Amino acid sequence: MLSCRQQISRLLLVRKASTQARVQTAGYVEVQEERGSLLKYPQVWLRDNCQCAECFHTATRARKSHWERGPLNTQVSQVTYNQDKKQLEILWQDKHKSAFDMRWLRERDFGEAARKRYLEEVYKPSAQLWGKSEFEAVRREFQYQDVIQQDAELKHWLEALAVQGFAILKGAPNDVDVAKHLAQRIGYIKRTTYGDVFEVKSKPNAGNYAYLMTPLPLHTDMPYYEYKAGINILHTLVQSESSGGANTLTDGFNVASQLRKRHPQDFELLRSVPVNWFDIGHDGDASKPFHSLWRAPVICLDVDGGFARINQNTTKRDSRFSVSLEQAVSWYAAYDKFLEIAQSEAVEFKTQAGDVFVFNNLRMLHGRTAYEDAPGNKRHLVGAYVDWDIIYSKLRTLKFPNAKD
Question: Lower CB density within 10 Å: C or N end of the chain?
Fold first, then answer.
């Protein structure tokens, strides 16, 4: 006949790692589930995340603020599994009690698979890098009205922007507020020195290179902003009837990836050497003057070593280069290699009236071929920006509408 302890262990074995054990197991609580999964949690993490009313404010999903220092020295006295409630119950040495639902614990498993799943499914979808030969395979098109009216299509569109880095909406009305409506459909428009929305068309006494009819080289917008615009929404109201005016596009993350594999020394220079990006002037006669500056490398990585942001804009790269003489010379050679790859991987397509071209401005290099306006045909685009913080937030609310924590 099995003892009571043996019967419980057939369902779930919970044990506190002995303080006498080896260093790598000290200070943990292990949960061996019936199906074979072994879950392990630091004692200090369990105490830090106690869900009781004394420690946690459920309505605001926040720890209560009376812990000015972490519970580093509080140890587990007893740990049991409540089969009826499906909870891990802990009695601490200071007599405090904690209870954790097993579903809640599984979602916070410290194992590699659970961490990877959270980062890719909840935090941010993984980017799908692509080159010129993959362009048609990754190109996604959506109907404007479907994105405006259907949450499912809005989710698919935002996922395409996060994964492939761009998408095209078809069938937008001849309305100067289309870009603004799309931004508001996501959440909040990003206001810049160029306003809530901006117009891209040839202008006399142009204050920005984009307002000329000359070729616009591959670039990202606003590298001179510390908080650079996340996506660019470009609605084509009137397209040029000349042979020019086509969009050009390159996946900057793919360019950086190729550079890292094929030319690691050049990659390291573009990852580490800060460049001065600037924008000085005003947008229109009535606008306030601006003087924007930001120093950042061409290739910026995130905390996990992945690609976070590409800065490239030849027209907005300052002549002041605040690095050593030797670094400057080496940097130019690396920069030339980056642009060579970017241009070799660039694709070209031409939007038509009613198309909305939307792309990740932290990732994609975009440009335009030269064009000519004519009487009765003046190329006219209207654009707007939205930050990725807002986009990811909206995407999560669409993916997890009933999320409680």
Answer: N
Q: 211 vs 125, 199, 205, 370, CA distance in Å?
A: 35, 9, 9, 11
Give the Cα-Cα-Cα angle 259, 262, 263 (nearest 5 degrees): 65
Is residue 258 packed enough to be buried (19+ CB in 10 Å), middle (13-18) or exposed (0-12)? buried
pTM (two decimals): 0.89
Cα 286–Cα 288–Cα 292 angle in degrees, nearest 5? 140
The percent of residues in the chain predicted with pLDDT above 70, rounded, is 89
Name the amino acid, one letter, at 130. W
- Identity of the amino acid at 185: R
Q: 221 and 362 in contact (C-beta within 8 Å)?
A: no
* Pick from 251, 225, 262: nearest CA to 343: 251
Nearest to 258 by CA among 363, 337, 330, 312: 337
How far is residue 252's CA from residue 228's CA, in Å, rounded to a whole number? Answer: 15
Amino acid identity for residue 374 in this structure: A
CA–CA gap between residue 139 and residue 169 (Å, rounded): 11
The crossing angle, in degrees rounded to 10, of helices 388-399 and 151-163 is 130
d(CA 277, CA 27): 49
Report d(CA 348, CA 162) in Å as an integer. 21
Type and span of the H or E element at 359: strand 356-360
Q: Which helix (H) or strand (E) holds 314?
A: none
Cα–Cα distance measured from residue 151 to residue 128, given in angstroms and rounded to the nearest whole number: 23
Per-residue pLDDT tens over the stretch 308-367 = 999 999 999 999 999 999 999 999 999 999 999 999 999 999 999 999 999 999 999 999
Rounded to 5°, angle at Cα 78 from 3 and 23: 105
Q: Supply 69's token pair.
A: 């220092």
- Encode pLDDT of 147-188 as tens digits: 999 999 999 999 999 999 999 999 999 999 999 999 999 999
Rounded CA separation 282/165 (Å): 30
Alpha-carbon distance 12 to 31, whole Å?
7
The backbone region for 135, taken as left when phi is positive above 0, alpha when psi lies in -120 to 50, beta otherwise, is: alpha
Q: In 139-191, which ranges are E strands?
A: 141-143, 166-170
CA distance 278 to 223: 8
Residue the block writes with tokens 């509408």: 401
| CB contact at 8 A, 320 and 253 | no
Q: Say what angle helices 151-163 and 178-186 make with each other, to 10 degrees.
A: 90
